[in-house]
């Protein structure tokens, strides 16, 4: 088909006015390739620059814990309220509908059950499987200070080597099974920094009330906090708010969501904290209102 020579000509860019490019907002990711950045942008909200993740991968070492007995029933109402879902490939295939639009952070390391030494993990997902499942990131345990520390560190570096050429970020999940290891800011500074040094694109760790800002400031990649054990809703919202104020890039909660008395109400309140900067008291008020079935005003 012949072109229309009378059509308006494209404007020539003016000299001295180059196209503007803004830097990528995810910490430590500026030099990454487009695909890697795109996957991270699906996890970390471009507006708030924070991530609300929900972890439901507990069954790979604990079995069907309370709240996850029937994942397809308990988790389905919550899916649209989180930015990313952290889970195993088995639960993804059997319990999450394929029209799930948010990101999948796929558990890629596994090993013993809670009946044995948990740090004895190996890689448990092939990179081609992650591609088939459209994973936005791969999660690998890093048991710093535990019996099989070196093995899990090598799991992490091996997955970074496998995932990076395919544009898939790696989430390092810090943990320890050594009861003599103090779980303080000094330990978490070391654990998070080791994961960053070895190539992880973001790291999941625990919040500590004293010195947590030194954990985030000394880590050149985003730090996402774990929820830990179930605590009262106001306490969980307060922990999230404090962590974000001290440099955390998001939260990855599990039990505090799906074991809440009102999981849907809680995840909506948590979302208000993470993405809207809502103070804990008002977020808890929102939770109570939603729990009672009332629509909040204003």
Structural overview:
With 298 residues, the chain is α/β, with parallel strands linked by helices. It has a single domain (34-40, 47-291), classed as Aldolase class I (TIM Barrel, Alpha-Beta Barrel). Helix content is 36%, strand content 14%. The strands form two sheets. Strands 1-2-3-6-7-8-9-10 form an eight-stranded parallel β-barrel, surrounded by six helices. The chain is globular and about 80 Å long.
**Total discrete domains:** 1
Order of helices and strands: HEHHEHEEEHEHEHEHEHEHHH
How many individual helices? 12
Strand order of the largest sheet: 1-2-3-6-7-8-9-10
Distance between the termini: 56 Å
- Would you identify the CATH architecture? Alpha-Beta Barrel
Task: Say what the CATH topology is.
Answer: TIM Barrel
Biggest β-sheet description: 8 strands, parallel, barrel
Quantity of strands, as a count: 10
Mean pLDDT, as a whole number? Answer: 91
**Which class of secondary structure composition applies to the elements?**
alpha/beta
- Classify the beta-strand content into a percent band: 5-15%
Radius of gyration: 21 Å
Write the layout of secondary structure elements.
Layout: H1 34-43, E1 51-55, H2 59-62, H3 71-74, E2 84-87, H4 89-95, E3 103-107, E4 109-110, E5 122-123, H5 127-132, E6 137-143, H6 149-163, E7 170-175, H7 185-197, E8 202-205, H8 212-217, E9 223-226, H9 233-245, E10 250-253, H10 255-258, H11 263-276, H12 280-291
Parallel strand pairs: 1-2, 1-10, 2-3, 3-6, 6-7, 7-8, 8-9, 9-10
Antiparallel strand pairs: 4-5
Helix pairs in contact: 9-11, 9-12, 11-12
